[in-house]
Amino acid sequence: MSGTLVLVRHGQSEWNLKNLFTGWKDPDLTELGVKEATAGGKALAETGIKFDIAFTSALTRAQHTCKLVLDEVGQPDLETIRDEALNERDYGDLAGLNKDDARKKWGEEQVHIWRRSYDVPPPGGESLKDTGARVWPYYMTDILPRVLRGEKVLVAAHGNSLRAMVMVLDRMTKEEILKLNLATGVPMVYTLKADSTVAEKKILGDMSGAH
């Protein structure tokens, strides 16, 4: 009995547009972000999928994306579980800062290390490893068992919380995961085997807009 796990990164947010570090701050989607999430939902609707449950983070941009996707697949009232475990990586003192201003303050190299290293957190924030440390247990205890029971599960979350899950699913090294950028609003559809490994992975939509 194979279940299906669909991961969707939220559409463009107001702070993505302004080139700000967002983290646990809570801006909503831009007009483009709404279009991206809606397009992802339409792509899923074309597959005919019907979900048993949805998971999202405690942040508006992911919840809004989740709702838009569910509207498109014709399941606006589906049970949706919201949890901080799926929140974006916490950028600490960088949150709310323009990325260019942060580079002026701390230097290009230091900011690059915070953004792209695996285990070096920004001041007061989380590294990708720290983000994984809260995402992985939640995935193992709350999300994965449902998929293994044969359910179809939607997760609408964030670039870094989803990278932590993709790292496990695609068996990526920490070097490989650092190079992975997930496109906004583009569904990744995983079919899992009974031993929780991946039987099939499909990415729905155009990947040329990945960033």
From TrEMBL:
Keyword line: Gluconeogenesis, Glycolysis, Isomerase
Top-level taxon in the UniProt lineage: Bacteria
SMART domains for the chain: PGAM
PROSITE patterns: PG_MUTASE
Reactions it catalyzes: (2R)-2-phosphoglycerate = (2R)-3-phosphoglycerate
CDD domains: HP_PGM_like (cd07067)
Swiss-Prot/TrEMBL site (Transition state stabilizer) positions: 158
Active site: 10, 88
Pfam families per the UniProt record, alphabetical: His_Phos_1
EC number: 5.4.2.11
Annotated pathway: Carbohydrate degradation; glycolysis; pyruvate from D-glyceraldehyde 3-phosphate: step 3/5
BP GO annotations: gluconeogenesis; glycolytic process
GO molecular function: phosphoglycerate mutase activity
InterPro entries, per the entry: His_Pase_superF_clade-1, His_PPase_superfam, PG/BPGM_mutase_AS, Phosphogly_mut1
List of residues binding substrate: 9-16, 22-23, 61, 88-91, 99, 115-116, 159-160
Enzyme class, UniProt record, top EC level: isomerase
TM annotation in the entry: none
Family: Belongs to the phosphoglycerate mutase family. BPG-dependent PGAM subfamily.
Subunit record text: Homodimer.
Cited HAMAP family: PGAM_GpmA
Record's function text: Catalyzes the interconversion of 2-phosphoglycerate and 3-phosphoglycerate.
PANTHER family the UniProt entry points to: PHOSPHOGLYCERATE MUTASE (PTHR11931)
Descriptive protein name: 2,3-bisphosphoglycerate-dependent phosphoglycerate mutase
